[in-house]
Amino acid sequence: MSSPTLDRPRTDPAPPAPRSLLQRDAGLVWHPYAPVDAGALYAVRGAEGVRLTLEGPDGGTHEVIDGMSSWWSAIHGYRHRVLDQAARDQLDSFSHVMFGGLTHEPAVTLAERLVEMAPEGLRHVFLADSGSISVEVALKLALQVQASRGEHRRQRFLALRGGYHGDTFATMGVCDPEDGMHAEFSGVVPQQAFLPRPPAGRLGADGTWEYDGGALASWEGQTREIAARLAPELAGIVCEPVLQGAGGMHAYPPAVVGILRQVADEHGLLLILDEIATGFGRTGRLFASEWAGEWSLQRGGGELIPDILCVGKALTGGYLTLAAMLCTSEVAADLNAGPNGGALLHGPTFMGNPLACAVANASLDLLTGPGDSPAWLAQVQALDAGLRQVLAPASELACVRDVRILGGVGVVQLHGPVDVAAVTREVVDRGAWVRPFRDLVYVMPPYVSTAADVRTLGAAIVEGVARVHG
Among residues 347, 368, 389, which one ends one of the domains? Predict the structure, then answer.
């Protein structure tokens, strides 16, 4: 006689439902400035041109215009045929080789082109693997140069309140120590000296800078007093010219950079300009320091040339991580006169990566374009005009404190903190991607964005902010 238990058909448990990419991510992958279990708002399923295809928590998809250029780097958009081909061609040759004792065509060509594009006098190039590291190298170079000059006490830097220069330890030290993102590490990072945040400046539609002359004079007086008092222990001055990015998208008059150049010269300091976010046309000049050069020339001075310049982000068009530090021949000569045989004491494993350098060269080709007028100039001028028009209605919202435009940068500043998740979702539902922070909803679109793309971005931001904050 058979057992009823044995005769009963077996039923295997149902397989678990497949988890979405967002579910797999949450609790596993850390995201920038977030707890490990925060997860992401959306998953990227595709990217082409200026558009991202996003998948939301409900599994639905959204095609959105990327208003962030992937944190200001993807200036030519995604899957660009020229950049794709440059990567393929280099892969067919070799993708990486150590840079110690060796060199290669992509790196040398890139260095030549950077020297040609940069302000006159910057003749030597150190290729780094990220923007933060390029600033680290700049700080190390300044310290080594001061030591070569016999100035061994000069081991601190002067930086601006509101500045941001990276997340590595030395760069954290020159970021704003209180209102920045690294206050928690204030007891362990190098203790630097800080100048007041420069007064706000605004670039008018006619191309002239508007600012409070009295506020600038007051800032200059404080700056000169601090620099004179601390000069014997200072190695250099560090700043983001004209636009402080992650420190609040704060634009300030070009005269500030000119004053810092004068102060550096008066006290034997090296002027380090961090153009990682502002370089390659974003502010309406190829390098933001050119605004200060124009200010200097208008007053009978010469072209403003930093001692050290750092670039990154848009260098490869957002394809691969790469940055560079450039310095003058005078700085290099001072280093050579010191110990260590003139060696700059830094050497990343992926320094001068051939694949990244090859794509960077192709990106610079796209920036310049054919003809006498560079391609980026017309593109950024169109962004400037478009952003002024489409973001203007935001100034009528009660929740909005300020709307400002500088080249390919548009900023809507609220009176209080942005509800980041809520505003992001509202904007995505309207066909755009932004990443607000603090009290800011801002855009830095790819240069290749069309007028229609900019209209979509502007309407999404204005409507999204109005929906969430009123």
Answer: 368
The residue among 269, 303, 316 whose CA lies nearest residue 139 is 269
Is 313 one of the annotated active-site residues of the chain? yes
Q: Which one of 176, 274, 307, 384 is the catalytic residue? A: 274
Q: How far apart are CA 320 and CA 49, in angstroms?
A: 17
Assess whether 329 and 432 both reside in one domain: no
Q: Is 140 marked active-site? A: no
Residue pLDDT, tens place only, 88-135: 999 999 999 999 999 999 999 999 999 999 999 999 999 999 999 999
The catalytic position among 164, 252, 319, 442 is: 164
Which residue out of 7, 12, 33, 58 is catalytically annotated?
33
Average pLDDT for 387-403 = 98
DSSP secondary structure string for all residues of 393-404: GGGGSTTEEEEE
> Mean per-residue pLDDT for 204-220?
95
- Mean pLDDT of the chain, nearest integer: 94
Task: Clarify whether residues 381 and 312 are in a common domain.
Answer: no
Give yes or no for a contact between 307 and 264, defined as CB atoms under 8 angstroms apart.
Answer: yes
Known binder of ligand: residue 134?
no
Is 130 marked as a binding-site residue? no
Q: What pairs with residue 402 in β-bridges?
A: 413
- Number of residues assigned to the chain: 470
Residue 109 annotated as binding? Answer: no
Contact in structure between 437 and 418 (CB atoms under 8 Å): yes
Residue 308 pLDDT more than 80?
Answer: yes
312 is in an annotated binding site: no
